[in-house]
Automatic annotation (TrEMBL):
GO terms for biological process: DNA replication. It comes from the Bacteria. InterPro entries: DUF3283 (IPR021700), PolIII_theta_sf (IPR036745). Pfam families: DUF3283 (PF11686). Gene3D superfamilies: DNA polymerase III-theta (1.20.58.250). GO terms for molecular function: DNA binding; DNA-directed DNA polymerase activity. This is Pyridoxamine 5-phosphate oxidase.
Length: 69
């Protein structure tokens, strides 16, 4: 079964994008190409509380998966 992401509602597309950003930021942390403060800066720019919570959950998930403290 294939899923066309372009047909998703805008809120779902945004959550997917935030998840990708979280993954990338945690990868940068693991590779010492970023500092933990960058995650806080990105989270602070997210105005919707639900999206911000989703982003921070994704960050926690990727930290656990990638073994980042």
């Amino acid at each position: 079964m294939s899923i066309n992401l372009s047909t998703l509602p805008a809120s779902d597309k945004n959550k997917i994008e935030l998840d990708k950003q979280a993954s990338f930021l945690v990868w940068k942390l693991r590779e010492a190409k970023a500092v933990p403060d960058e995650i806080d800066q990105v989270a602070a720019k997210i105005t919707d509380q639900e999206e911000q919570a989703s982003f921070l959950e994704s960050v926690a998930k990727y930290k656990r998966v990638m073994g980042v403290a």
